[in-house]
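I am still getting used to backbone structure tokens and would like to learn alongside you. Would you supply a protein for us yourself, any chain you care to pick? Start from the sequence, derive the backbone structure tokens from it, and show both lines together. Go ahead whenever you are ready, and we will take it from there.
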Amino acid sequence: MASSTIISRKMIKLLSPTPPSLRCHKLSFMDHINFHLHSPYAFFYPKIPQNYSSKISQILENSLSKVLSFYYPLAGKINNNYTYVDCNDTGVEYLNVRIDCPMSQIIDDPYNDAVGVVFPQDLPWSSSWNRSPLVVQLSHFDCGGIAVSACTSHTIFDGHSLSKFINDWASTARNMDFKPSPQFNASTFFPLPSETNLSSTLPTTHPSKRHVSRMYNFSSSNLTRLKDMVTKESHVKNPTRIEVASALVHKCGVTMSMEKSGMFKPTLMTHAMNLRPPIPLNTMGNAVCIILTTTVTEDEVKLPNFVAKLQKDKQQLRDKLKDMKKDMMPLYTLELGKNAMNIIEKDTHDVYVCSGMTNTGLHKIDFGWGEPVRVTLATSNKNNFIFMDEQSGDGLNVLITLTKDYMLKFQSNKELLEFASPVVESTK
């Protein structure tokens, strides 16, 4: 197993201090009820041009310092009841780390768990309380390749906000005259009630060491095959990439569960829906509502039936939110979350959690030395499916996290392997 050695650790300060008028960043109700964890992403660059190799860290540090002047809450401190961020310009943790192996040993490993070495050892998915809302690690491999990892507080950022920040940081690294335009005004759309019931916050969960992850690729042609199969056997129209891919991994999960228990168990699958619009695209913070899709019979698990059900659930949520006052959306989101947690606690359903980081540009993040060969996250909670754009083309990568015994069955599923293949990308 590869090990890491910290070369240096520092705090990156803002290039321009935060004005006193912005010192207190009020968190929104959506922020308050979210999971208070760090979301850990990593970007792998195997071949660095010689003219960049000696100055990579300086480029990252300088551009981070500038972009933080626009994303100032990331350099502050979240208060202990998650109602505001003290934007005190403390700075962002930045680590330079040496990894004692070639990059190929990490990203060619069949399991994604090996990527944990490029994150601060005590950080992935850990609480964002009493820790910098953003922690960056630059990892240097023996082969000369690097990985840039960014762990951002989910209290401050959802996936949309994270992708905006990373894209703006990369743009700044390529052109220091670039000026980002984030707006930290989510609390005006989703105000925190004056008497907040702190016990209403959704519970924080931590991944178990018994969980393992593998990444699978759905090529553009295989996604087209899946879409054709779904539309020919049902009245479903224009299914999306994620709808058909999530329906397949859900079906494989059900098959795996039935092989293990000998019987069908009802399922609950959650998807995240971005609320931008109706709120502006450059609004930072958490603005996501969850879609709950359940099955109670084996027939509902079939791909055409599940996609039809998922589309219906999505449309019902859109209709529900369409005429809803924005300040009521967090309460509704919280209610959906509580409904999901009640099902989880009763153990009446197998639960699968889907999230998507597609159409964000993260698969092409270029700090000046080219695009990454791999973008991924640290291992998450069990039965978790995270969809991302593949590094080239219109396909999808999905990071699947299961318990070890379930993964052994899942990875040999013939229907899965007919449409998806394990991602192992050689850096040689």
